């Protein structure tokens, strides 16, 4: 069982992530997805009369706020109790005011982009591709094109 | 308390994302620079298992635990899937996090990710404030 405390291999983690698609559907009748939780966060911060702009589908997405609270707890458990070494997830340079401004701006692109694309890596790349949706394939290819363009530019600049 | 099950699912999802390090900025960089296959293999294996499961579900007409018909459908395509998708790709490369991992990074104690979460919330608001003017 020592592998549990090391980095999980792709052939363990990948299939486990894939199993969320059928298990979540059978147990709760919900489609895996996360990015609409940002709309939920917006609504928590804004007065009620503004909520209509989000066109929020409570039945499809109202549960996601609980799901992301769980993700935070799960990540805490994984780092505190299931890791033999400290694994960094963000580089040092983000621990500064300028670093956090960069993350904030990047976050705006993540929030704007995923809502404009009506889904993220979980909703399109895992769930959408699992049900063989061509729209989700277009979205997934676009995610990677965007990431590759940015990475190529930042490499040459 | 019916929402408790979603917290439990979230905890399991968060553990898997964190232990496989797909929430790592370094892993995302290596993915976009084609330096390692880890991210591609995790996503690829996830899709293969998800797709096989969904084929089984479709053919065997499985119902939900509470006996309902399973409700799932693909999303209706519009231009934002590509334009928004590319914009998200930029953000993914910058922050090293897609939406699930943003929350996982916070839980893992990488507190600058709170700035990413704040940005993503503002980004969702900006989209809904401008969507009538955007091509769809």
Topology:
The complex is a heterodimer of chains A (157) and B (136).
Chain A: H1 10-28, H2 37-45, H3 58-61, H4 64-81, H5 97-116, H6 121-130, H7 134-156
Helix pairs in contact in A: 6-7
Chain B: H1 4-19, H2 25-32, H3 38-60, H4 80-95, H5 99-107, H6 113-130
Helix pairs in contact in B: 1-5, 2-4, 5-6
Brief characterization of the structure:
The complex is a heterodimer of chains A (157) and B (136). Chain A has helices at residues 10-28, 37-45, 58-61, 64-81, 97-116, 121-130, 134-156.
Low-confidence stretches of chain B: none
Helix content of chain A: 55-70%
Shape of chain B: globular
Rg of Cα set of chain B: 18 Å
**Could you say which structural class the secondary elements and strand pairing of chain B correspond to?**
mainly alpha
Outline type of chain A: globular
Q: Any idea what the radius of gyration of chain A is?
A: 18 Å
Amino- and carboxy-terminal Cα gap of chain A: 45 Å
Oligomeric state: heterodimer
Topology of chain A as a string of helices (H) and strands (E): HHHHHHH
Description:
With 157 residues, chain A is an all-alpha fold. Chain A has a domain at 1-87. Chain A contains seven helices and no strands. Chain A has helices at residues 10-28, 37-45, 58-61, 64-81, 97-116, 121-130, 134-156. The radius of gyration of chain A is 18 Å and the shape is globular. The termini of chain A are far apart. The mean pLDDT of chain A is 96. Chain B has one domain. In chain B, 66% of the residues lie in helices and 0% in strands. Chain B has helices spanning 4-19, 25-32, 38-60, 80-95, 99-107, 113-130. Chain B is globular. Classes of the chains: A mainly alpha (157), B mainly alpha (136). Chains A and B meet through helix 1, helix 2, helix 4, helix 5 and helix 6 of A and helix 1, helix 2, helix 3, helix 4 and helix 5 of B.
